[in-house]
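Q: Got a minute? One more chain.
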Amino acid sequence: MKNLLLALGALLLFSCQSSDKKESAAGGNQDAAFDAYKEHFVDALWKTYPEWASSVGYHNYDSMMTVNDEAYRKSELAFLDAQMDSLKKYDVAQLSSNNKTDYQLIENQLKSGIFSDEELHAEQWNPSIYNISQSSAEILAGNYDKLDNRVKNIYLKLRRAKDFYAAAKNNIKNPTLEHTALAIQQIEGSTSTFEVDLIDSIKKTSFSDAEKQAMIARANEAAAAMKDFAAWLKALKNDSPRSFRLGETLYKKKFEYDLQANSTSDQMFEKASKRKAEVQAEMLKISKELWPKYFDKKPMPATDLEIVKMMIDKLSEKHVARDSFQIAIERQIPTLIDFIKQKDLIYIDPSKPLVVRKEPAYMQGVAGASISAPGPYDKNGNTYYNVGTLANYTKDAAESYLREYNYYILQILNIHEAIPGHYTQLVYSNQSPSLIKSLFGNNAMIEGWAVYTERMMLENGYGGGTPEFWLMYYKWHLRSVCNTILDISVHTKEMKKEDAIKFLVNEAFQQQAEAENKWRRVSVTQVQLCCYFTGYSEIYDFREELKSKMGDKFNLKNFHEKFLSYGSAPVKDIKALMLEEMK
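A: Always. Here it is, folded:
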């Protein structure tokens, strides 16, 4: 009997191995074909979206400008439909795990594009998308080619500047007041890209005087076209402006395409509401612990939220001077790097430059701090940490802003934006063997990683583990939680401005200036504010799941580096790939 069972086992093993080989061969053929398709797809993608290509370091189409007229939108939709048909030729079940994920990312990108063209129609109501300065400014700031070549490409690109704004005027119908104001602000602030920056660069080239004069004339024409558009927007008769609120139907679809999360917007709203209560309870506990230290025997206020607010206000008095905000950020970056090395949390590549700079004008009016990273084609390019200016703030508004970004929170902001947050993650993303995963960056993963690192750094002793630092961390964390509640409430539940401000000030403990800025941001963006808590939740929960499964074998540095090695893919896809690899 034993020999018979062994023989049967050997036969079954041989049979399984033969079947596996057949399946592997079939899958191998599918993978080879799909890899070839991806190359053709990416090249077609850049021909359709040349400005996007330039932004990720692919510069073959730098001289092209997309004019968003009806003909272009038809060609774009034809491209998206054709690529969807091409995808259907591949059997997803036969693809490798890596290619399955790439397939899903491409499919989501195409569906999102079709949704934008056929349902969202931002070209009609969002004038802020019509700004030609960003692409030219990025090319001008690059170091990937000689200045002469970069300037010539911008010169060729700008030949369509007038056509660009003629199409914009033709597209716009009942724009929102908020996006109109944003467009005017950004355009008026960024004409200097052509009137100053480009002209200064032209003068430094080796072109003849006649060529330089032609280039300068075109730069001035581009700036004039921008100013004309801003003036047109100011004079536009708009008796029935569209609401900036996206509405529940469009919002839920955009949430699905933008975040590619395991949860719906309704589920994330409930999760964020629950987390808000948990965080507020922790903050109350710490505030009561700190109360004697800062208020001696002064009686505590009657309500829990007021106790927390008074403690936060007290700690927020410690902040940098108005004219030292950017300097303080620059000085702190080396401290973060030293801490990460000391704790061995993740490898930081010293060859990838991080440059702290004043926020460019074309970015103003949305976020106070951000990262601009080079794409996978320009891996050695500079990563810019964009810092908002306080130049236009009144004395009181500046003080409110500096209290919001106080001594503690400014450090947490730097963890989020720079190291080991966005800067670090995007450097790893560019090293991913999958170009698709690097190109189609998932916002929930990108922002979620930055939020995750804030907690991770404090867990490992950053800030000395003091209750003050933990209280301010929870205040900052509450921001990402309340971002989700705010965004969904405003765009799908008709939350009014006065209610939103009260919510942010009283329940999220934000300064008035920050609350006002957040209202402006939620009125000109949709879904993006949900990225932070959605991505953080998925990453943190996955880490804790692995720690539970692996016990003593779990290594935090290994987890971080492996997690980031898959590019900026959705967290659910990274999780699936990591778990399969662990098997």
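A: Confidence is low (pLDDT under 50) at residues 1-26.
Q: Perfect, thanks.
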